[in-house]
Amino acid sequence: MARMSDEQPERWTQATVYPDMWVDPKDDPRDSEGPGPEGERDTLAGYVADYRFTLRMKCEGLDPDQLARRSVPPSTMSLLGLIRHLAEVERDWRNWLTHAERLPKLYGVRDADFDGAVADQAVVDAAYADLEREQAATDAALDAFADLGERVGRDAVTIRSIMVHRVEEYARHCGHADLLRECVDGRVGQ
Q1: How far is CA 157 from CA 10, 96, 149, in A?
Q2: Which residue has the higher pLDDT, 127 or 36?
């Protein structure tokens, strides 16, 4: 059985105003000032955008070895694996929208998104490119539906359900990213 290293990184944050924050409010690139978005669609899209950005923030400044580090053995989860997994999930959400033939998996067999997350700069670059492409395609596909209550696809799921599920999926994995990043280099903050 693999054993985790006894050496633990020292906890730290870049923030100076609130010690539980990732960065100081004035340096936070996510838009949290002013009135919130108007309407349900813009609210849901705003949460997805913020969680997407949060995931990128949790990964910034790390090299391929750090991004691919599996912090809680025997789990295969890593920050790089999360990027690849979310690219795969973005693609799958488009499958929910249609009765057409399903788009193929990006990385092949089940769990290949995590298993293939290896410490190689080409894998890192491809994962980020895959995620950006799949996010843009899913956004465009969802934008084609004006009615959030419209039922689509084989399972007759509503557009609203897909959009809420996106918030849930990114929020859950940003929580994983918090813990993974802390294990990699000790950096903390939501």
Answers
A1: 45, 8, 9
A2: 127
